[in-house]
From TrEMBL:
Signal peptide: none annotated. Residues 40-164 form the VTT domain. It comes from Roseomonas marmotae. The keyword Transmembrane helix applies. This is DedA family protein. The chain crosses the membrane at residues 19-40, 52-73, 112-134, 146-165, 177-196. It is found in: Cell membrane. It is a multi-pass membrane protein. PANTHER family: INNER MEMBRANE PROTEIN DEDA-RELATED (PTHR30353), INNER MEMBRANE PROTEIN YABI (PTHR30353:SF15). It comes from the Bacteria. InterPro entries: DedA-like, VTT_dom.
Length: 219
């Protein structure tokens, strides 16, 4: 399915280079929106656009800026929507099969709020989900943006220009500090993964059971 979309997309964006920045913004923005983001292959299309950047067909800066701004605003939109609606919308509309994932995310935010927002940018299944949990958990706006904005700045070049990004990183970080930086980043990614894989605590499990019984009794 993605192959059928990527080919025409590359042909179109190569012929309309002036629209490359806005298109990158739209793809990154929609992929970061709750629910909608699960159906938009934005990362695959942006990665394909990055190949055109490497070959010199597309200008780098408009696409990088568009993708970074779109990702940051998309996550901010999901966060603000969740803050406005509140936890009540989850209790009314979240399918039961997702309650356990929601409980794990709430637990994660009590321990790793900033890192959960930052790292979720680099995992497609979580990208459109974690900002919503941040809003529902009552995370402060400036705390959210403290993780959201830097993650968008890092994510865009890593996705669009991975070769250049790695080259810049290796040239910026000294050789003696490189193992420490890589180990630290690997440790943070592993901690986030293990945190999301942990079963919810007894208190959260009990709350979920109470919620299930309440929904069964409701007309």
């Amino acid at each position: 399915m993605q192959e059928q979309v990527i080919g025409p997309f590359l042909d179109w964006v190569a012929r309309h280079q002036d629209w490359a920045g806005p298109v990158a913004f739209l793809l990154a923005f929609t992929e970061s929106l709750p629910v909608v983001g699960f159906f938009i292959p934005g990362s695959a299309l942006l990665f394909a656009a990055g190949m055109l950047i490497l070959s010199g067909v597309l200008p780098a800066w408009p696409v990088l800026l568009g993708a970074g701004l779109g990702a940051a605003l998309g996550d901010s939109t999901g966060y603000l929507m969740a803050r406005h609606w509140g936890p009540g919308v989850v209790r009314r509309h979240l399918p039961r099969r997702h309650w356990r994932l929601y409980a794990r995310a709430r637990i994660g935010f009590r321990r790793w709020g900033l890192w959960a927002v930052f790292l979720s940018r680099f995992f497609a299944p979580l990208r459109a989900f974690i900002p919503v949990v941040a809003g529902l958990s009552g995370m402060r706006h400036w705390h959210f943006q403290l993780a959201n904005l830097p993650s968008a700045v890092v994510w865009a070049p890593l996705l669009l220009m991975p070769g250049q990004a790695v080259g810049w990183f290796s040239g910026t970080v000294s050789e003696e500090h490189l193992p420490i930086v890589l180990l630290t980043m690997s440790g943070m990614a592993l901690a986030a993964w293990r945190l999301l894989k942990r079963p919810p605590s007894h208190a959260v499990s009990h709350a979920l059971q109470v919620r299930k019984r309440g929904l069964r009794k409701s007309p």
